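Shipment paperwork, digital attachment
Item: protein structure file
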Amino acid sequence: MALPTSQARYAVRERLLKSWIAQLRNQGDSRSLATAFFLFMSEAAAHEDGWAENAMAFHAEALRTSDPYVLQLWQQGSRRCGMRGTTCQALPKTRWAEIEPNNLLAWLPDFRDAGGLTDAQWQGVAAAGYVRDYQHEFRARLLALLAKTPPGLELETGLGLVTSSYLVGSGPSALTMHRECNKPDAAGRFRNACLHAANLFWNAPQTSVADRAMALSMSEKRKALGDVEWAQRFAELKALSPEMQMALRQAESEPKDWNKSCDKLPARRQRLLDIAEGGSWKAAQTLLAKGAAR
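Attachment content:
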């Protein structure tokens, strides 16, 4: 059987995005509407007509919102204004921290912003109580729209969009924190803040293999591995064989053979949903446990 042409794939992607946007708008709640705004602005959608109006409506929603999900999506979506040669009025970088001061990510810049943290941001990091990245919920919302899609080109395209660089931004993350804690002035003044951040990333409900690796690296550079708890964590990771560590990383990344067979698409959908809901560390551990039980 002949494989779909690039033109056919593009047509399916365009139709799918239009369907998602319509469904999200019909749902009517603020998070669904923000998701629809974001998708309309995305490079994947390639919309022309109505783009500026959509951006203005999204900006107005971001200005009045007290919902960090909406704000995080706006901060990522607004970058596309410059790509379009248009201007979107920026929101203050402190807006997220004002809305959700207990979330460590609210105090961090996007990874592309290498300007460093202010003293106020470091204080926010040190006082934060958790890590919550709304990209997980964003993906879960898109996956819910694919829940009843049968195996085939539409499901393959939809799952590709869920993990696409078009829709997943380079927002604040463990990698951002790791970069800031590697700077020379962090070794002394901000040692405790970095260790606190490392602990939050390690214990985050949706932590990944990469998050935990970054957390261990931060603790090691801050000379914390003498601490009993961090020593135990290091031993936990060290106890994994090189083969097991590789398997963990492969389990949380996109396997190369997913697209070779339609019958694997439902399993891929479920795996992505597991990661969105519980983090890739937990999903990878589950996959490995199932493999060991066979």
